[in-house]
Amino acid sequence: MSETKLALVTGANKGIGYEIATGLGALGYRVGVGARDEARRESAVENLRAAGVDAFGVPLDVTGDQSVTDAAELIERRAGRLDVLVNNAGISGETGPGWGQDPTTLDLDVVRSVVETNVIGVIRVTNAMLPLLRRSTSPRIVNVSSSVGSLTRQADPDIEIGPIMAAYAPSKSFLNAVTVQYARQFAGSDILINAACPGLVATDFTGFLGPRTPEQGAATAIRLATLPDGGPTGSFFEDDGVIPW
After folding, report:
1. Could you say which of 18, 29, 168, 182 is catalytic?
2. Has 168 been annotated as catalytic?
3. pTM of this prediction?
C-alpha cells in the first residue's frame, strides 16, 4: 500500500467540505471527494487537481446503504486503507421565517430527513469505512458538528446561539452524543474521533450569511484530522478550544 495518507471527506464538492479537502491535500493527503451530484463532484475534483491536490471522486449518498458500500469498495480498490474520515455532509432541513424551525409546528418528516443525513448517515459511513480505517497506523475520524448542538449553550439565556432550530440543532446534539459513544468504543485503540464546529460560515448552507470564510470554517476539522498519536478523542472543538456539551 502507498505511504501517502488517504482521506475521505463527505459533502466535499463545495463549501466547508471542499476547503477541508483542499487543506488536507495541501498537507500531502490523497483526498477522496465524497458527493452525490456527479457534475459537482467531478468539477470539485478537477479544481482540486488544478490546485495540486491528489484528488479523486467518490460517488456517495450518505443516506443510501448501497451507495456507502460501493464507496468503501472503491476506496478498497484505490488504496486498500483509509487514514482519515471527515463526516462533513449535512443538511439543515426546511426552515421558516428567520431561518427558524418552530418545535410546535415542526413537520416530522423534516426531523426524519435531518436525522437520517446528519446522524444515521454518519453512523452508516463510519461503520462502512471502519475496516479500512483499522488498517491505518493513525486513523482519525472527524464529525463536523455545530455549536448549536451544545446543550449547555442552548440552555443559557445569556448566550446568543441564533434562531430556534428544532430539527437541525438536536440533530447535532445527537451527533455529538454518538461521537462520544464511538470514542468509548475505540478506547485503547489508535482511532481518535472528535466533533468539530466550523462556526457561522458564509456558504450556500447559510444563505451566504456569516462572518467566517469556508477556509476558516475548515481549520478545526483539518487540525483534528491530523492529530498526533495520543491526541484528544471524544471531545467537541471550535477554533478557541473545547465546546461544552
Report:
1. 168
2. yes
3. 0.95
pLDDT band at 150; cut points 50, 70, 90: very high
Q: Give 31's contacts (C-beta < 8 A, 6+ positions apart).
A: 6, 7, 8, 9, 12, 21, 24, 25, 48, 53, 54, 55, 56
Predicted pLDDT of residue 161: 87
**Best CA proximity match to 129, nearest among 7, 233, 21, 4:** 7
Q: So what's the pLDDT on residue 201?
A: 75
Asked whether 237 and 192 are in contact (CB, 8 A), the reply is no
Q: Which residues contact 47 (CB under 8 A, 6 or more apart)?
A: none
